[in-house]
């Protein structure tokens, strides 16, 4: 008996997102979408990165400031 190999996707995941559950994935996508529009409160550039929970670092001006968990404001 020959067992056919099932097609496996070779797409590598770039981030550790939610994998299972439609609702969770939907929520994660919404949060992820929000983080894209985060702007620095000092210079206004869209170059902020989250250092820790609620702590944001601007790559443009180097400002470190407190914000919300997933958004800067
Ligand atoms: Zn800045």
UniProtKB/TrEMBL annotation:
InterPro entries: Ribosomal_eL37/eL43 (IPR011331), Ribosomal_eL43 (IPR002674), Ribosomal_zn-bd (IPR011332). GO terms for molecular function: large ribosomal subunit rRNA binding; structural constituent of ribosome; zinc ion binding. Binds 1 zinc ion per subunit. It comes from the Archaea. One of its GO terms (biological process) is translation. A zinc finger (C4-type) spans 40-61. Its cofactor is Zn(2+). Zn(2+) binds at residues 40, 43, 58, 61. Belongs to the eukaryotic ribosomal protein eL43 family. Putative zinc-binding subfamily. This is Large ribosomal subunit protein eL43.
């Amino acid at each position: 008996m020959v067992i056919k190999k099932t097609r496996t996707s070779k797409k590598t995941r770039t981030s550790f997102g939610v994998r299972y559950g439609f609702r969770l994935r939907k929520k994660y996508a919404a949060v992820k979408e929000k983080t894209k529009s985060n702007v620095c409160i000092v210079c206004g550039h869209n170059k902020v990165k989250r250092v820790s929970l609620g702590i944001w670092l601007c790559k443009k001006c180097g400002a470190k400031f407190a914000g919300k968990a997933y958004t800067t404001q």
